[in-house]
Amino acid sequence: MEPAIFSPSSLFRNGDDDSSDEEETDIQQQQTYVERRHVFPGMELLIREFSFHQLNANLLWPGTFSFCDWLVEHKACLEGRKIIELGSGTGALGIFLRKSFGLDITTSDFDDLEIEENIAHNCRANGVTVLPHIKHTWGDAFPTCDPEWDIVIASDILLYVKQYPKLIKTLSFLLKSYKPKHKDTSPRSLCFKKIVGVPGKDVQLRWPVFLMSWRRRIGKEDEALFFNGCEDAGLVVEHIGSRVFSISPGRLQQDLDGDLD
Questions:
Q1: DSSP state at residue 244
Q2: Closest among 212, 82, 76 to 134, alpha carbons compared
Q3: What angle do CA 62, 93, 238 make, to 5 degrees?
Q4: 3-state SS of 49-75?
């Protein structure tokens, strides 16, 4: 099967670029599709991917599959929650979660019609009602002023180091401006998970929370830029699984401890 071509250059273009209309036409002509079957926990999905796309919404990266394994193991945290995925790409993760658990999930990605239409195509190809989709470029004003998603998810979205400040800006808005439709006082609103490699310590997932799986290989310094940037923005970063992280609005540790009593 032909490999997908990786081309992130357009994400970093600015007004000084001198790309000609002819070059843009050549790029557009290269944007074709490849359908691949991928094995997910308990099912196989037929996913149409871009064999080339300027915005790189073309591949399923390793983090998606490992994240699915983690989410299946911790599915109790997802039940009854409103979820939005950042950087949905092909929509495969959202399709898997809807098909497996019937979750309320919204996909989102760069403001590009082809990406939105391809996610809709993949939903239909796998017998899933087309998922709600939001076109949003990280760092720009979010389409809704009152985000009500309890959980934000993403897998392998840290490739573009230059985009970290914009991604953190979007995350900060979704987490700090969170306005749930209904106040949840049920026991389900508190979810405890063991942190791998830290015996005897539990992490408390409280809504809202950003859950992210990261498997792509980048330098530790680049990776630290994102996590340090989140902490500088007043967010709390915790490692809660094998390359799975939770990022949430900052809260005093004594408040968390009080909830555990």
A1: E
A2: 82
A3: 70
A4: EECECCCCCCCCCHHHHHHHHHHHHCH
pLDDT tens for residues 136-166?
999 999 999 999 999 999 999 998 899 999 9
CA distance 67 to 88: 13
CA gap 247, 238 in Å, rounded: 6
Q: pTM value?
A: 0.81
The whole-angstrom separation of Cα 81 and Cα 210 is 13
Element (H, E) at 254: helix 253-260
Q: pLDDT for 205-233, tens place per residue?
A: 888 999 999 876 677 888 899 999 999 99
Alpha-helical segments (H) within 102-199: 113-125, 164-176
From residue 2, alpha-carbon distances to 8, 32, 34, 50, 52 in Å are 19, 11, 8, 11, 11
